[in-house]
Amino acid sequence: MQDLIEQARNGRPRAIARLITKVENSRTAAAEIVPALYAFTGQAHIIGITGAPGSGKSSLVNELAKALRRRDHKIAIVAVDPSSPFTGGALLGDRVRMRDLSGDKGIFIRSLASRGNLGGLSQATAAVIKVLDAAKFDTILVETVGAGQAEVDIAGAAHTTLVIEAPGMGDDVQSIKAGILEIADVLVVNKADRPGAARTVRSLKAMLQLGQALAMNHHGRSTQTTSVATVVSPNGLEYDENSWQVPVQETVAIDGTGVEDLLDVIMAHKNHLQVTDGWLAQEKLRSRREIEALLQMRFMDQFQTAVSQDDREQLITAVANRKTDPYTAVAEIFDQIKA
Amino acid sequence: MQDLIEQARNGRPRAIARLITKVENSRTAAAEIVPALYAFTGQAHIIGITGAPGSGKSSLVNELAKALRRRDHKIAIVAVDPSSPFTGGALLGDRVRMRDLSGDKGIFIRSLASRGNLGGLSQATAAVIKVLDAAKFDTILVETVGAGQAEVDIAGAAHTTLVIEAPGMGDDVQSIKAGILEIADVLVVNKADRPGAARTVRSLKAMLQLGQALAMNHHGRSTQTTSVATVVSPNGLEYDENSWQVPVQETVAIDGTGVEDLLDVIMAHKNHLQVTDGWLAQEKLRSRREIEALLQMRFMDQFQTAVSQDDREQLITAVANRKTDPYTAVAEIFDQIKA
Does B129 have pLDDT greater than 70? Predict the structure, then answer.
């Protein structure tokens, strides 16, 4: 095991792939491997990418990956599909991507599909990211399929979170979601050459302003910091590195339009995190979530050991038949665990 | 409290609304109210409705509600938005619906939005459904916004689950998701007057067949039962009540096309559940999930009592700074809880 970790640390793709398979498939393996390589993590810039199906997310991830390679980043792409118990969708996405990106040693691509257990998938994703981080990838792109809470959770664990929208998906009152906007560090309107793009950009900007106004009301104060430090990125992007205003970027992933600018903005966000306490704050948030998830898993293991399969089935049947209620049943289980 | 429950049992809207507000806002209140009314639950037919934004889900729920009223069902609509920490979106949906449906005492409408805690929302939804069930609503429509795992979980807890698609959303490899198809009892292609509807119906049928073939392979046998009992619904729908083949129904919600047929299919599924052991199986599944969710919540409460806020923050900071790793941290917490 120590040998495998050493090889992964030296960038050997086969060792990395084997470690990932281990942490993905077995919680016991993850509980052994993650502590062994944890001290080497915390270096990679983790970029979460989420957005509705049809937004062209995968093409955009492709183009971002190529742009990062042009800037000599060693990158890993993790495509996570919380909604699929099969690996079909994610693997198909892989193959589409692979046509463009395979053969490049600076890119590592991996798909993760749900095994019907969402907690398990979040945990597996967290462990896989740690393996890649310890393997010295500079940038890890975590792409999630769909736009639900699961995706929000997974993508939201990144340092920099991109939310992708596309024009013409906005004819439903619910299609632009406040909850997803909340986690965005950068909003992207992809397919920006399509009709309605300008309208989508305008609605997103309006939603952002509304969100900001609500947040100020809620906290009774502005969240802006006091000092202003305008810096200019290598490509001429001007921004205040002390405070972050979520920008709305336009891209056309299929021909690469706007991708370099988007990458500038992503790097500006990374810089913002590094000069403020944002980077550590993200690490703490991720640590907190991971500890809570692991606690819950260990507790469920304990429960399954303490209460026999038969007792569990009897209790469930009693609740289903209205002989008892779920709250009373849970109180009984707690008594059994303690005894 | 007992008085409020009695009033809700007699269909008094204000009492129902007050109970819902209590169980939604306070877990302590839910732990008191749910056991008190649990024996009265288990009568309502719970219909889960999920599907991608833009599929016209809310309009379809409207039309289904009207069709159910024409058949004299007393109905409740619960609109759940797991992705929104604001109530904005869900409330907006309410108002749109209210124009058509308000003023009818046989309909009760309620929106639930996420408070940033998904487990909390699932629990709140489960408790709200129980209040409505005990208040003698015949049919409870649970509509979830979005198409992620959270929605799948909430809608999947219903007796009959509808998954809504629309034509023209299928130009992305990931837009039709195996995970969502898996929970569907009825698939609906809404906006069936739009170009591409026939293609969407065909792809869904193909996906269903593929899913069935995979399931047979996986279990090494067909899931079909041996006896065949063809029945005919009041509106002339013929089906085998012993085995359920997921149908693909076409609707145009905005003018009501196909809605009566869809309702026939939904009632046929209810009948199928009642003549087979499907109804009890659903109750058991829901009981199992609820017990597990309540167990996890109680455990997290215990953890927060046993480990002080300061100790938790120190541990999180140590993990974020790589002084320790999440697995070791969790082992320490478990020792503290046991001590």
Answer: yes
